[in-house]
Design goal:
By secondary structure, the protein is α+β, with helices and mostly antiparallel strands. It has nine helices and 15 strands. It has helices at 12-23, 62-74, 83-90, 92-101, 115-125, 148-159, 219-232, 260-265, 271-284; strands spanning 2-7, 27-32, 37-39, 42-44, 54-58, 79-80, 109-112, 129-132, 143-145, 169-173, 180-187, 190-198, 211-214, 236-244, 247-254. The protein has a five-stranded antiparallel beta sheet, sandwiched between helices. Strands 2-1-5-6 form a four-stranded parallel beta sheet, with helices on both faces. The termini are close together.
Amino acid sequence: MRLGFVYTRIREDEKMLLEALRGRGHDVVKVDAADVAFGLDGPYPSDVFDGLDLAYNRCLESSRVRYVSRFLDHYGVPVVNSAETAWICADKVRGSLALRRAGVPTPRTEVAFTVETAVEVAERFGYPCVLKPVTGSWGRLMARLDTRAAAEAVLEHKDTLGGFEHKVFYIQEFVEKPGRDIRVLAAEGEPIAAMTRSSDHWITNAARGGSVDAFEISDEVRYIVREASDAVGGGLLGVDLMETKTGYTVHEVNATCEFKALNAAVPEVDVPERIVDWLEARAAE
């Protein structure tokens, strides 16, 4: 296939993907999104996306992920993940609404637009609770609110930062988890591999230093992952779950996820090769 590989930066993840693609003889066209102007009537350079069987959006920033996929769809270029899936996953509010509409277990969440109302939400949830940015990754800009004073301070700080997204206060209940959460990489809802991410800190992301181990996927997890994937429109997704006393809850679905740590945690699965399997199947559709 002729694959457009749209990127922001070539990290270890992208290097592994490119190696797997080229190892199978695919024609890979690398496109740095920073070098393209996305016009209403076409891109500049005008031939940058010509003749592609598929485009794979590996941009890092959520804004580029969303808009690059939208423009590729507008140009009639098949893109993964889809523009709608990318948009839903890049916005925690849209993601939470999609999960709830589909009946997927997800933490109790409320959104407020003023500091005063947000503090009322925190008081109603009880402490601790969690304040998250509506866009972002790697656990950045998340805050655990342990007291009313802490809630008032953090919320007032965000309110003065500027930028409309800082004034959307997305608050979730604090889920007591056993020192870890679970990341499942899935293609169209079918798990490729899974790992736990453990830490003494309440944020367990591998990007924040969490240790990783392989996780055996149960029938219950497999079912929840498929339901979560369907809820956001399918594609190649990282589904993040937490274990609770009553079962699993999905707190996030990621449309552009790193897999370097996962690949190291599951030596019996070649993750980039499995991703290429899926890309080949999508290009053949």
